[in-house]
Write a structure and sequence with these properties.
The complex is a heterotetramer of chains A (about 400), B (about 290), C (about 260) and D (about 450).
Chain A (H helix, E strand, L loop, with lengths): L5 H13 L1 H10 L3 E5 L6 H6 L2 E5 L20 H11 L8 E5 L3 H13 L6 E4 L8 H22 L5 H23 L10 H11 L4 H16 L9 E7 L5 H8 L5 E7 L4 H4 L10 H10 L17 H13 L3 E7 L3 H17 L3 E6 L5 H16 L4
Parallel strand pairs in A: 1-2, 1-3, 3-4, 5-6, 5-7, 7-8
Helix pairs in contact in A: 1-8, 4-5, 6-12, 7-8, 7-9, 8-10
Chain C lengths: L5 E7 L3 E8 L2 E9 L4 H14 L11 E4 L13 E4 L2 H12 L5 E5 L4 E6 L5 E6 L7 H11 L4 H10 L11 H13 L4 H20 L8 E4 L6 H11 L3 E3 L6 H8 L6
Parallel strand pairs in C: 1-4, 4-5, 6-9, 9-10
Antiparallel strand pairs in C: 1-2, 2-3, 6-7, 7-8
Helix pairs in contact in C: 2-8, 3-6, 4-6, 4-7, 5-6, 6-7
Chain D lengths: L7 H17 L4 E4 L7 H4 L5 E4 L2 H10 L1 H13 L8 H12 L1 E3 L5 E3 L6 E6 L4 H11 L5 E5 L10 H22 L5 H23 L10 H7 L1 H5 L4 H19 L10 E7 L5 H11 L2 E6 H5 L4 E5 L2 E6 L2 H6 L5 H13 L2 H4 L4 H14 L4 E5 L10 H10 L5 E3 L12 H24 L1
Parallel strand pairs in D: 1-2, 1-5, 5-6, 7-8, 7-11, 11-12
Antiparallel strand pairs in D: 3-4, 9-10
The chains are: A alpha/beta (about 400), B alpha/beta (about 290), C alpha/beta (about 260), D alpha/beta (about 450).
Chain lengths: ~400, ~290, ~260, ~450
């Protein structure tokens, strides 16, 4: 097999996503403070500027009923799973848990940590607008970030200068640019790296110290550029939907009976996490951060342009379709995530107009390998049009 | 079941050019159909236990009705949720294309929508006149297992599934149960007993609820005519009648000689037939043709 | 209480109807029949066969007390049910009667499950019942046994042999069923599937129990208490010792029978 | 002897008239959107504003036509709306899909009256998306959603108040643009004062339920708060509630109640699940148990003092305060309106469990409750679902507490058998609790 070490780097990333706690604790060993965050709307730059490493709280994929008496049945498995980890004290090593008022399901997971898992005195809930595309929203964000900054200064007992923030912004932007470079490979018909691998590397970015991460990712990209590339992508599938940190599902897409490739994932655990930049060298750093976070692919629960009611996210999706040329779209929707399913309703006619077939997978804690496998294979079969 | 009526009594497999079989390992029952030069020659249907063992039981039961053996079959296609567990299959195809192929083969090129109500899953398939599936809708998690839940329900009321289906037709005035989830419907059914509803009403109510859930799925994906219903539950008049009423669409009349539960297996057999012939012509042309769809 | 008096208790449950005949504290006869649709017939049948083994004739019966979800329906002249008690009262009374040290009873029935706690006099303290998504655990258990082609007993024994901790979705018995089927289709070992099925049930029951302090001693009753797999798993999650009462499915009926005549 | 509210017919008529006008009026500006929005800005556009709200309309439709509601919900599911989405939304969208509308006077009109604009709010994950969908289906109705950020003590947080004010200010400019009308500050300010007045009055009416016997029960509260939900900006609406306050005061003075038999006083946390609640209420009434305080009927159209030094109180606000409010300029009016709207208890609970708990504690204490009834609404995205599971855990040891599954308007998700079992148990527990208390 011809790989010039790219496989080994990817393996390293994968092992970090599989051993998140060990990795995080190793950072602590190096004297770093750790802040867990439950929603990607938390401005990590501010934490990073204070020398705190933000690590995303991800699910453990353990099927359990314990949280049913803490969070309502009809909450997404992701929030149940994250709450479970709090109750199991898997994250007790965190110095701080932060979330922004966003998805109510995740907010409830946060509440469980605070109310029942002993995080009362090391938690911060940042109020974040639920409609982001308005002038007042950016002003509000700025104020809310300022409060956050002051809290972090008190918490970390160090002042956060504008230079600190600028440095953090640059580090994070670098990560974002590198990730975009990486994802660009998937536009090719014979990408040197597979979609699931890209998903793994992207997920790792939400768990790692960005400086270390950037170095590793740079190496990876270099090596990939000299890679000849793998087999033609076959049927190109794009995934759009909610948070999904279960890499088994993405692997599934490429282990079908047919040649199929995962070429894009629009979700807050993938593209939505990094597909933007924070303006650099602005005088007002917090305003810059606000501007950056507003320019993201919006989360369906925040996506209403005042005046028109337009969903900005759809523009991004159509752009990605143009750029990455999928043969089919897979809606990977967290069960019980209403905003996602509302978007799907409106998205289907758009895709039908573009003549792109779609199918739906309903996400839960467990991955029904046969069922998903069957639905995906059937999807590929309808796309390729097998018939006797 | 009328599964023997279609069988050519003296299959002369020695003369047959192409002997193929489709094996459909479903969640509740496993079926197989053997074709001799495209003609059905034996079928079988057995209860699914563990998939691999059930697949063997299914094909053996069908072979028992013939005068030939497994090794005489040229090509076997496995389908159904247990398709990966069919050790003797040359290839697998998912239920969706098989449903379409089978339905069109039996009801003809006018079929555009196939509703397959199985033991575990419920799916709607759109297809072309050539039997090619163009789109499908799989049941959401809350609508899973309707077929099996009917069996459970039959046990609760101590009735045969089909008998129950007929009872369900005897009442059209009944309280509505939750048509959202069969667990809910079940609990509410007990409440009907508690409120002393008649047996006919209660059974009709449960059937209506399940039919409504199925019909919602079908309507969601859009029903184009001609419309057919296949799968185990297609045998239950209590379900099919209500589905038709709710959708306000008549289905093509069921074929007495074909058990609707066998259509998917038939589709698989048709695929087997095609693949084998293609393979033969490929071999005569260039060898080593990949089996990729 | 009057030692000579012959008491009968009928527990008309969702799935099974249980009847017991008692003289004072002594259990003379008992019988279970599937409830089905004709609840009264079932109750009558259960009572008759319970009597049969005792040699007591119906008219020797003192009073008949009914409990269970259909308790009101079986209040018909032919059965002359003289009194009804709520299920949770019957459970508490029965469990306390059979084990004076018990303070909590967990009842895992065909369609619903509940936990009841009471004090040293058997006085009811707290009750918690399952929510709608967790309905039908017992029915599901039977259903899965059929699906795997096993008796409930066999499935339980197999589950104990399970070596892999396979997980199935926990939302409800429906999603659990689809996942169990999915595991089978992946070629999983039948013992591990059985293990996953019983663990699912224990997960749901244990979760419900976390709503109230489980005071010792904890006894388990109801049809599913007969499954060793379930009873063995339960302590793992409740972090408490539990014991199963003899004839667990009859405890409700016994509680009903003795809840007549003065004392609670 | 149960007391009959004399003014209740007027309330019904007011509500029906509002809907009738929206449905039938030939000219006039049709405005759709959550009635959980500040409504006065719409009134700045003129005196021909016809409004149709989301939740109250969906709720009353379900109440008036249970079968229609079922059909509407299933219609929107067929149209692709998620099976787990808000059932208010499904019913509302269902009417649009079926192109028919049913209103509280019992009439059903074919042809859904298209709104000229959508003026609404966003708070839960779904609220604005609901109207996005309606807008899409009706061919792109211009819509403006105000982010009601929410969170515990919102109306006292200058950052949040400013945020909402700025949005309203922009919204008003948008309204002018979209309608081509001039915005009259005079009309707006008048409407604002009415809106605030009604909300304060309703708070006062609810607060009278602290007396024993409580003059009103949940059923009457549900019947009496629609006008405040549908259109609280008119002089007539103010008059209605002033009259009602007078009448309920009289009931208290003469010790009368619409449900005099109140052995147990219950605090209720849950939506008015139109289908299940009457069934439960019957069980409770037979046992002499009445809901005397409910966060939904109190907090959706009523304002109270809210958080006072750290903990919640349902003390009413003096109506006289409203008359003295300085609303001389647009910004001042907007600010007061923003504060009052942000102050709604039902919103404070969203995304802030501590406020929800604090509310429950206050209600239990101030309304001398014997039991706490929690009915999380299966398809609701707000605190009407999420907070309650944890609350049962917290309150169970303090006071008889049960929790049963319900749903806003989706019959199929209501756990009727379970709820009945649990309600019977609830009564049993409250009785046992009373005994305990007497023993001590």
């Amino acid at each position: 097999m011809m790989n010039n070490g790219s496989e080994t780097i990817i393996e390293r990333f994968r092992s970090i996503t599989e051993n998140t706690h060990e990795y995080a604790k190793s950072l602590q060993g190096k004297g770093k403070m750790l802040a867990g965050y439950m929603c990607t709307h938390v401005p990590e730059e501010i934490l990073y500027a204070a020398g705190i490493i933000p690590v995303r709280v991800l699910s453990s994929h353990v099927s359990q009923a314990m949280t049913r008496s803490y969070i309502h049945e009809t909450y997404c498995s992701f929030s149940h799973d994250c709450a479970y980890q709090g109750l199991q004290h898997n994250y007790d090593y965190l110095d701080l848990i932060v979330t922004s008022s966003s998805c109510i399901h995740m907010a409830e997971a946060f509440n469980v940590w605070v109310r029942f898992a002993g995080f009362q005195h090391k938690s911060y809930l940042m109020s974040f607008p639920h409609i982001i595309h308005s002038k007042p929203a950016s002003g509000f964000m700025k104020e809310s970030f300022e409060e956050f900054r002051q809290f972090i200064e008190k918490f970390s007992k160090k002042t956060i200068t504008d230079d600190d923030i600028e440095r953090a912004i640059k580090v994070y932007n670098h990560t974002r640019r590198l990730l975009q470079q990486l994802w660009e490979f998937l536009r090719r018909d014979n990408s040197p790296i597979t979609g699931p691998e890209v998903a793994t590397v992207t997920l790792a970015s939400q768990l790692m110290d960005k400086e270390e991460y950037n170095q590793m990712l740079e190496q990876l990209i270099q090596r990939l550029e000299n890679n000849p590339g793998k087999a033609p992508s076959g049927v190109r599938l794009m995934v759009t939907g909610g948070a999904c940190d279960d890499l088994r599902i993405f692997d599934l897409v490429e282990n079908l009976n047919y040649r199929a490739s995962l070429i894009f994932i629009d979700s807050c655990t993938a593209a939505r996490y990094f597909w933007f930049e924070v303006p650099e060298d602005r005088s007002d750093k917090l305003e810059a951060i606000a501007e950056g976070y507003i320019s993201r692919i919006p989360c369906p629960s925040k996506d209403t342009v005042p005046g028109t009611g337009e969903k900005k996210r759809f523009r991004f999706i159509q752009q990605f379709i143009q750029d990455f040329k999928p043969d089919g779209i897979v809606f990977l929707c967290q069960r019980f995530c209403s905003p996602q399913s509302m978007d799907i309703v409106a998205l289907k006619p758009i895709l039908d107009k573009l003549g792109i077939p779609w199918t739906e997978l309903e996400l839960d804690t467990t991955v029904p390998v046969t069922l998903f496998g069957t639905q995906l294979e059937a999807f590929v079969e309808t796309i390729t049009g097998v018939a006797p | 079941m009328s599964e023997h009526t279609l069988i050519n009594e003296h299959p002369d497999f020695a003369k047959a050019q192409v002997i193929v079989a489709g094996v459909d390992v479903g969640a509740v029952s496993s079926k197989s159909v053997i074709l001799l030069d495209g003609q059905p020659c034996a079928v079988s249907q057995v209860k699914t236990r563990m998939p691999e063992e059930s697949a063997s039981r299914a094909i053996n039961e069908a072979l028992a009705k013939t005068n030939f053996k497994l090794e005489n079959i040229h090509y076997i296609v496995g389908t159904g949720c247990g398709r990966t567990q069919v050790p003797f299959a040359h290839r697998t195809i998912t239920e969706i294309p098989c449903d379409a192929a089978g339905a069109v083969h039996i009801w003809g090129p006018s079929v555009r929508t196939v509703l397959d109500i199985g033991g575990q899953s419920c799916r709607v398939i759109h297809c072309t006149g050539k039997g090619r599936a163009t789109a499908f809708l799989w049941n959401d998690k809350c609508a899973a297992g309707i077929g099996r839940s009917m069996e459970v329900f039959a046990n609760l009321v101590k009735k045969e599934v089909t008998e129950m289906g007929n009872i369900a037709l005897q009442s059209d005035k009944f309280p509505k149960l939750s048509d959202f989830c069969s667990v809910y419907a079940q609990s509410e059914f007990f409440d009907l007993i508690r409120s002393k509803a008649s047996k006919e009403q209660a059974i009709a109510a449960y059937h209506y609820a399940m039919a409504k859930r199925i019909a919602t799925l079908a309507a969601r994906s859009g029903v184009k005519q001609d419309f057919v219903i296949i799968g185990g539950l297609a045998r239950n008049p209590g379900i099919t009648d209500w589905v038709e009423k709710i959708l306000e669409v008549r289905r093509l009349a069921p074929k007495p000689e074909w058990d609707p539960a066998l259509i998917t297996a038939l589709g698989a057999a048709l695929f087997a037939d095609t693949f084998y012939r293609r393979q033969q012509s490929d071999v005569s042309k260039k060898p080593e043709e990949s089996q990729c769809a | 209480m009057n030692i000579g008096k012959i008491l009968a208790g009928i527990d008309a449950g969702h799935v099974a109807t249980k009847a017991v005949i008692m003289r004072g504290r002594e259990l003379l006869g008992y019988c279970t029949v599937p409830t089905g649709f004709d609840v009264v017939d079932a109750a009558q049948a259960a009572l008759n066969s319970a009597l049969k083994n005792t040699g007591i004739s119906g008219n020797e019966l003192g009073r008949i007390v009914a409990t269970g979800i259909f308790k009101e329906i079986i209040k018909v002249p032919s059965l002359n049910v003289t009194k009804t008690v709520p299920e949770y009262v019957a459970d508490a009374t029965g469990a306390f009667f059979l084990n004076k040290n018990s303070r909590t009873v967990i009842d895992i029935g065909g369609n619903i499950h509940k936990a009841v706690s009471y004090d040293q006099d058997g006085t009811l303290l707290d009750v918690i019942q399952n929510d709608k998504c967790a309905d039908g655990l017992g029915i599901f258990y039977t259903n899965m046994a059929n699906a795997l082609g096993l008796s409930e007993e066999e499935m339980s024994e197999l589950a104990l042999k399970s070596t892999k901790n396979l997980s199935i979705a926990i939302q409800c018995s429906l999603s659990a069923e689809s996942d169990a089927i999915d595991l089978m289709c992946q070629g999983a070992d039948i013992a591990d599937v059985a293990g996953a099925v019983s663990r699912f049930i224990v997960e749901r029951v244990a979760d419900m129990c976390t709503y109230m302090p489980l005071t010792k001693d904890i006894v388990v009753i109801g049809g599913l208490a007969k499954s060793r797999a379930i009873v063995n798993h339960l302590p793992d999650l409740t972090k408490k010792e539990v014991s199963v009462l003899k004839l667990p499915e009859y405890v409700g009926a016994i509680g009903a029978a003795i809840s007549d005549g003065g004392e609670k | 002897m149960a007391y009959d509210i004399t003014t209740w017919k007027d309330f019904k008529n007011y509500q029906s008239a509002c809907y009738r006008n929206y449905v039938n009026d030939s000219e006039g500006l049709r405005c759709m959107g959550s009635t959980w929005s500040p409504l006065a800005p719409l009134k700045g556009l003129g005196d021909d504003i016809l409004m149709i709200g989301g939740e109250p309309h969906a709720a009353s439709t379900a109440g008036t036509f249970p079968e229609e509601a079922r059909e509407d919900i299933s219609a929107s599911e067929v149209a692709g709306i998620g099976f787990h989405s808000c059932s208010y939304l499904k019913l509302f969208v269902g009417e649009v899909v079926r192109d028919r509308i049913g209103i509280t006077d019992g009439t059903i009109k074919q042809g859904y009256p298209k709104p000229n604009l959508i003026w609404t709010t966003h708070l839960c994950n779904l609220h604005a998306k609901w109207y996005q969908e309606v807008s899409r289906r009706l061919g792109g109705i211009p819509m403006y959603a105000i982010d009601m950020i929410g969170g515990g003590n919102a109306e006292k947080d200058p950052k949040i108040v400013k945020y909402v004010c700025d949005q309203m200010e922009q919204g008003i400019q948008w309204l002018e643009r979209i309608t081509g009308r001039d915005f009259s500050d005079e009309l707006f300010i008048k409407a604002t004062r009415n809106e605030i007045k009604v909300l304060v009055l309703w708070g006062n009416i609810c607060a009278l339920n602290r007396h024993s016997p409580a003059p009103l029960d949940e059923r009457r509260l549900i019947a009496l708060f629609p006008p405040a939900m549908v259109d609280r900006t008119t002089d007539e609406c103010v008059r209605l509630y002033e009259a009602l306050l007078k009448e309920v005061r009289y009931m208290v003075e003469t010790g009368q109640s619409v449900a005099p038999n109140q052995r147990y006083r219950i605090v209720y946390f849950g939506l008015a699940h139109t289908y299940g609640h009457p069934e439960m209420a019957r069980i409770l009434r037979d046992a002499g148990a009445e809901i005397v305080a409910s966060v939904y009927t109190f907090g959706t159209a009523g304002n109270f003092k809210g958080i006072v030094n750290g903990s919640w109180t349902f003390d009413p606000i003096d109506p006289a305060w409203v008359d003295e409010l300085d609303l001389s300029t647009r910004r001042k009016a907007i600010t007061e309106l923003a504060k009052i709207v942000l102050g709604w208890p039902t919103w404070q609970g969203v995304r802030s469990y501590w406020a929800l708990e604090s509310m429950a504690q206050a209600m239990i204490k101030e309304y001398k409750a014997d039991g706490l009834l929690l009915a999380p609404s299966r398809s609701c995205e707000t605190d009407f679902r999420n907070g309650y599971v944890g609350m049962q855990r917290i309150f169970k040891s303090k006071i008889p507490t049960i929790e049963y599954d319900s749903d806003q308007v989706d019959v199929r998700k209501m756990d009727l058998p379970g709820a009945q079992r649990k309600t019977e148990l609830f009564v049993h527990l409250m009785e046992a609790h009373k005994k305990e208390v007497y023993d001590k």
